[in-house]
Design goal:
globular, 74% helix, 17 helices, mainly alpha, 388 residues
């Protein structure tokens, strides 16, 4: 049975609107530091606060099997409203570093009711062609992540307050759209009871473990790369005395990954989901190793082309890993399985972000990015089986 034609576009649009909360402060980090009189090294702290909030949220959602016991659309809607409120609290004039981190933590916590829940809703509607559907869905996440950089690109017209207000309003709109237009899917199998053992139960399947560990390797690299894209651009511009529109190229580098997710979904229908994921993971690992050398080349166009290419391959495998996780999970715990894998994956991002932030600022510079290759290498080892 084919779902109504409006279902996927609505899920994709809602996901884009709501995930714009994720990096809302990253696009305006300099203005936040100036406005509240804080140190300019806010990037690592605020990004990690969101990630830690997301980890806490996914852990709570998973342990209580929220998305398998309650209507996913209602969970998505409530999470979108509260997440938007936490994001808007960034505007409070009395903010300090502590309160900003608390509000970003809250935003991340309720993003746990948006990103993995959106994938769960898609899995409830699309049995065949799930990889292609999740390609569109994760593509929306990527565009949502890049959107604050796009807003900030209009420096003369858009203040940092407008970026925060716009992303909060978009999240409310996305939650309303999904709640109003996307009921429970035909493949949804409800779980009636809290299952505190679910966190461990889902890893009993070997194929599920392989998919999950591949995803963990991918996550070691992904969000650290996204967080440091503006830093790479600024560093290159200063080193080579180049003129680069930082916000615009930050947006382009991240946003092109959305196109890669969609293309990866179509390619996977011919090459297979696991093989396509492996190829993307290999290419992104190569980019990690090449990064310091490319940054030495005094050719701005070559550097920007490399960065945009990395932005595509670093995320192209994400919907494919989610597809493998969903396909190999217990149907009654599918939502919980997706949430658990997200929880662990994002816990890994905090370690990666803090490690690279420390190494980058204490002498290693661009050489620190080579350490990101550890994730793809371990992920490829987990996926070494030739079975789909």
């Amino acid at each position: 049975m084919n779902p109504p034609k409006h279902i996927l576009p609505v899920i994709v649009l809602a996901q884009f609107c709501c995930t714009s909360l994720w990096f809302a402060t990253n696009g305006v980090i300099g203005e936040l530091a100036t406005n509240f009189g804080l140190a300019t090294n806010l990037l690592g702290n605020l990004t990690s606060a969101v990630q830690f909030g997301f980890i806490s949220g996914t852990l709570a959602f998973a342990m209580l099997t929220i998305t398998d016991r309650f209507s996913p659309s209602k969970v998505f809607f409530i999470a979108a409203l509260i997440g938007a409120a936490c994001n808007a609290a960034t505007l409070w004039p009395g903010n300090t570093l502590f309160t900003l981190m608390i509000f970003r933590y809250g935003t991340g916590f309720f993003l746990a009711g948006i990103y993995p829940v959106g994938m769960k809703i898609a899995a409830d509607y699309f049995d065949k062609g799930l990889g292609k559907s999740l390609g569109f869905l994760v593509g929306a996440l990527v565009l949502g992540t890049a959107f604050p950089h796009a807003l900030k690109g209009f420096d003369t017209m858009v203040s940092w307050q407008h970026v925060i207000i716009t992303t909060s309003l978009l999240a409310v709109l996305g939650g309303l759209l999904l709640f109003a237009l996307v009921p429970n899917g035909p493949y949804r199998k409800s779980s009636q009871n809290v299952d505190l053992k679910a966190f461990f139960k889902v890893f009993q399947d070997r194929k599920f473990r392989a998919a999950a560990f591949g995803y963990f390797g991918h996550m070691w690299e992904l969000y650290t790369f996204w967080a440091f894209v503006p830093v790479m651009l600024v560093t290159y511009a200063k080193t080579h005395k180049a003129t680069i529109a930082i916000s615009f190229w930050s947006f382009m580098t991240i946003a092109l990954g959305g196109l890669a997710c969609v293309l990866g979904g179509y390619v996977s229908q011919k090459l297979g989901t696991k093989k396509t994921a492996r190829n993307a993971l290999f290419l992104s690992g190569c980019c990690c190793l090449l990064c310091p050398f490319v940054c030495m080349v005094p050719n701005t166009y070559f550097f920007l082309l490399f960065l945009c290419s990395w932005g595509m391959v670093v995320i192209a495998d994400s919907p494919l890993f989610s597809t493998l996780v969903a396909k190999n999970a217990n149907p009654q715990l599918k939502g919980t399985a997706l949430t658990i894998v997200n929880c662990i994956g994002f816990a890994i991002t905090i370690i990666s972000i803090q490690l690279i932030s420390t190494l980058h600022t204490t002498g290693l510079g661009n050489w620190a990015f080579m350490i990101l290759a550890v994730g793809p290498v371990l992920g490829l080892l987990a996926l070494r089986s030739k079975q789909e």
